[in-house]
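Lab notebook, bench 4. The sequencing result for the construct came back, and we need a structural model before the next group meeting so we can plan mutations. Quick request posted to the team channel:

Model the 3D structure of this chain.
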Amino acid sequence: MDLLREKQRMERLHKVNTVFFYVVVLLGTFNVVWLIAKGYRLDEILFRGVQYVAMLIVMRLPKFLKFRLRIEVPLLLSTVIVVFCFSALVLGDGLDLYGRFRWWDKLLHAESGFVLSLAALWIIHLLMAENDKYIFFNKYFLSLFLIMFSLGFGALWEIVEYSYDSIAGTNTQQFMASTTGSIFTEQDVPLCGHAALGDTMGDLILDFAGAFLVSIYAFIRHDKIVERYKNASMFYNEIVDEGKV
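Done. Here's the predicted structure in token form:
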């Protein structure tokens, strides 16, 4: 019965992913055409168009890993990543919610702790194989690993944003005082001194806070998480045995 419920849940998540894919295609096409009709600069159109392309790549990546590298990405994890990337790439950059709402970037960084924690659990299973049970069953190490993984990946992301801003001349680290959007003009005013560090440090603090809350939940609900993990593993092993992956 548990395996049946898990299978039904996975099927529902797969349908959601499929709907998201077509929504991104339609929304991206409409948005780019609208930007051209409104006379936006070419660099702005290209930047926002690239966000939609990146989103489509993210959505197709699990299938690539599955059929090319024989790596199964859990549908729950891939769905959470899709929703997160949709909020960041499509809504944040494509529709410029970063520029319209100052809190949008902070909201996503707070959510990233949850997303990265799920990714950490999957990576443990992927790298440790049969030995992962020793890590999952140690709730102290599991909680610590979730925090360190999320914080480490958050720091890596800040390096990526800094490098991208340096190369492409964007404002993903929001070092401008007059706009929080990823695209800025010569009229925008940059932050100076300690204030220029605010976005980067704020993002890292939120990454830590999100991961810390998830680690507390993982610590308290450890037995339930292990039980759910066992059911999911049984479900995936059953699929492999049937030759469906």
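DSSP finds nine helices and no strands in the chain.
Will bring this to the meeting.
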